[in-house]
C-alpha cells in the first residue's frame, strides 16, 4: 500500500512570509504544506475586511482542489474582526465551501490559553491600535481578562515579517516590566517571528507564552495525529 503524507492547505495574506516557514520547521514529516494567498499589504481593519470578502472565497476554491486533509485560515487579526463570532463564521464558510475541516488561528489560541489555565493575560502585537482592539474584544468574549495589549504600530505587513526575533524580545522586555502580574502572554500575528523568539522569551518571562503560529501548528498536529 502506498503511503501518502497528510496535506495541510494553508490560506494566508499575500504578504505573509513567516507562517509557511514556521510550518515547514515544525512539521518535518507526516504532512506536506500547500499555500494559497489573499491579497493584503497594509494591515488595517478595512483592508482585512476587503481581503476576506473578495479574496477568501477564491482562495478556498483554489486550495480545495488539492484535496487537503485540513485547511488553516492563517490570519489572527483577520479572524478577530468583529470578535469570536466572525472567526467562527470564517471557519464555517471554509468548511461549507470546501467540505474540509478548517482550523483558525484565533480558535487555536483560545484553546491553548484555556489549556494553560490562565485567565488574566497580556498581549503583544505588531499591530496598530484599532487592530489590537479586535484582538482584545475576541479574547474578552472567550472569557479572558486582557490585562494589557501593546502593539508596535506597524501596518506594512512585509515589514512585520522582517522584524527579527531579537527585536521582538527587546520590545517585550521594554513593555512588560510594569505588567509582570499577567498570568500568561500572547504574541499575536502569524507574520511576526515570535515562534522563533519563543525560547528566549521563555527565559525572560516565567509565565506561559503562546504565539499565533505555535497555537495553530499545535492544533494541526493534534488534528492530524502527527
Task: Describe what is shown at a glance.
The chain has 226 residues and is of the alpha/beta class.
Please give a handful of descriptors for the protein shown.
226 residues; alpha/beta; Rossmann fold; 2 domains; four-stranded parallel β-sheet; 8 strands; 50% helix; globular
SSE arrangement:
Elements: E1 6-13, H1 19-26, E2 31-38, H2 45-63, E3 70-73, H3 76-80, H4 84-98, E4 102-104, H5 105-116, E5 120-125, H6 129-141, E6 145-151, H7 157-162, H8 165-175, E7 184-187, H9 194-204, E8 209-211, H10 212-224
Parallel strand pairs: 1-2, 1-3, 3-4, 5-6, 5-7, 7-8
Helix pairs in contact: 2-4, 5-10, 8-9
Please give the radius of gyration in angstroms. 17 Å
**H/E series:** EHEHEHHEHEHEHHEHEH
Reading off the top of the CATH hierarchy, the class of the largest domain is best stated as Alpha Beta
User: Which structural class do you get from the secondary structure elements?
Assistant: alpha/beta
Shape: globular
Termini distance?
Answer: 19 Å
Low-confidence stretches: none
Q: What is the architecture of the largest domain at the second tier of CATH?
A: 3-Layer(aba) Sandwich
Please report which band the strand proportion falls in: under 5%, 5-15%, 15-25%, 25-35%, 35-45% or over 45%: 15-25%
Helix content: 40-55%
Using DSSP, what is the number of strands? 8
What is the tally of helical segments?
10
Number of domains: 2
CATH-assigned fold name of the largest domain = Rossmann fold
Overall pLDDT confidence: 95
Q: Going across the biggest sheet, name each strand in turn.
A: 2-1-3-4
Amino acid at each position: 500500500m502506498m503511503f501518502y503524507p497528510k496535506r495541510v492547505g494553508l490560506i494566508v495574506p499575500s504578504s505573509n512570509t513567516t507562517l509557511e516557514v514556521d510550518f515547514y520547521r515544525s512539521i518535518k514529516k507526516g504532512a506536506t504544506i500547500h499555500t494559497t494567498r489573499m491579497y493584503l499589504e497594509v494591515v488595517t481593519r478595512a483592508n482585512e475586511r476587503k481581503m476576506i470578502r473578495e479574496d477568501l472565497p477564491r482562495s478556498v476554491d483554489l486550495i480545495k482542489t488539492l484535496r487537503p486533509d485540513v485547511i488553516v485560515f492563517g490570519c489572527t487579526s483577520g479572524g478577530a474582526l468583529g470578535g469570536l463570532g466572525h472567526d467562527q463564521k470564517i471557519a464555517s464558510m471554509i468548511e461549507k465551501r470546501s467540505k474540509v475541516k478548517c482550523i483558525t488561528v484565533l480558535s487555536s489560541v483560545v484553546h491553548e490559553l484555556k489549556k494553560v489555565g490562565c485567565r488574566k493575560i497580556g498581549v503583544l502585537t505588531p499591530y496598530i491600535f484599532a487592530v489590537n482592539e479586535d484582538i482584545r474584544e475576541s479574547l474578552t468574549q472567550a472569557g479572558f481578562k486582557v490585562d494589557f495589549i501593546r502593539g508596535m504600530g506597524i501596518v506594512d505587513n512585509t515589514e512585520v515579517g522582517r522584524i527579527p526575533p531579537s527585536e521582538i524580545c527587546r520590545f517585550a522586555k521594554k513593555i512588560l516590566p510594569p505588567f509582570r502580574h499577567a498570568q500568561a502572554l500572547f504574541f499575536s500575528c502569524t507574520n511576526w517571528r515570535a515562534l522563533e523568539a519563543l525560547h528566549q522569551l521563555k527565559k525572560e518571562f516565567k509565565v506561559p507564552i503562546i504565539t499565533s503560529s505555535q497555537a495553530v501548528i499545535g492544533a494541526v498536529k493534534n488534528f492530524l495525529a502527527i
